[in-house]
Automatic annotation (TrEMBL):
SUPFAM superfamilies: Ribokinase-like. Activated by a monovalent cation that binds near, but not in, the active site. The most likely occupant of the site in vivo is potassium. Ion binding induces a conformational change that may alter substrate affinity. This is Ribokinase. It is found in: Cytoplasm. The gene is rbsK. It comes from Streptomyces seoulensis.
């Protein structure tokens, strides 16, 4: 079975559903409030597990009630949490506003994720056993770099979601195989506004780029092949939170299973299309049979 390791964050998402997000200085009345397990690392781990892989998550939760629920939620989806440490203090939280068009705005407070600034005993051995290592930027950069370097030492493919967007050091780029930005992140990293132009610009930094474009689909570019555009599955989105994480987790599984490139991209896009039709991040992630049913060659 495919084995995916994720190094990254767990957050409790504090989600407010509202017709329209407030402008600066404005107060609006929301429709509903929910607490839903999330965090980019945990989301990608759950997406990959539900897509059919054996998955382990390296990270940290706090010793509070959220930490217990975050761990339980991962285990319930079959994610191995042996390398998810419980540390003193608060778990990470994400404060999310979702409007009636399914758009979101997020403030993340790292909490326990901020303690993940190095690899702990056993982490490198776990990474060495994986088919792929998934990384994002919600834990401190030194750990992300150390994880990617460990993966490179053992010939394990690294897939980095550069979110939240920030300048990426050469130390990290030099050990990144695949970058999976969204349009905002690609523009931030390159300063280029045209999606193809931005994706091609990123090839100066890493060998492969999968640019997720929401309703416009996915654009794949690499140093060795022609660009490949895959359309999105047309669905009515109600909440896009975690869609990028769902795509990254499912894509890693598809590639590790050696699906042909176009199929891997479309299969992961099918997973993301399913996730945007449901509320919440982890709560919206599809199981493999649902992805198979949504996917059309
Ligand atoms: O990518 C979506 C995630 O971003 C949410 O689950 C939230 O926790 C933030 O980290």
């Amino acid at each position: 079975m495919t084995h995916i390791v994720v190094l990254g964050s767990t957050n409790m998402d504090l989600v407010t559903y509202v017709a329209r997000a407030p402008r600066r200085g404005e107060t609006v009345t929301g429709r509903e409030f929910r607490t839903i397990p999330g965090g980019k690392g945990a989301n990608q781990a759950m997406a990959a597990a539900r897509a059919g892989a054996t998955v382990s998550l390296i990270g940290a939760v706090g010793n509070d009630a959220y930490g217990v629920r975050l761990r339980d939620n991962l285990e319930h989806s079959g994610v191995d949490t042996d390398f998810l440490r419980t540390v003193e203090g608060a778990s990470g939280t994400a404060h999310i506003v979702v409007d009636d068009e399914g758009n979101n705005a997020i403030v993340v407070v790292p909490g326990a994720n901020g303690t993940v600034d190095h690899l702990s005993p056993g982490d490198e051995g776990l990474i060495a056993s994986a088919d792929a290592l998934l990384l994002q930027l919600e834990v401190p950069l030194p750990a992300v770099i150390a994880g990617a370097e460990a993966a490179r030492r053992h010939g394990v493919r690294t897939v980095l979601t550069p979110s939240p967007a920030q300048p990426l050091p050469e130390e990290l780029l030099s050990v990144t195989d695949v970058l999976v930005p969204n349009e905002y992140e690609a523009v931030t990293l390159t300063g280029r506004t045209d999606p193809l132009d931005a994706a091609v610009g990123l090839l100066d930094l890493v060998p492969e780029v999968v640019l997720t474009l929401g309703e416009a689909g996915v654009l794949y570019v690499s140093r060795d092949t022609e660009p490949l555009a895959v359309p999105a599955h047309q669905v009515a989105a109600i909440d896009s939170t975690g869609a990028g994480d769902t795509f990254a987790g499912a894509y890693a599984v598809a590639v590790a299973e050696e699906k042909p490139l176009r199929e891997a991209l479309s299969w992961a896009a099918a997973a993301a299309a399913l996730s945007v039709q449901r509320e919440g991040a982890s709560a919206s992630m599809p199981y493999r049979p649902e992805i198979e049913a949504q996917y059309t060659a």
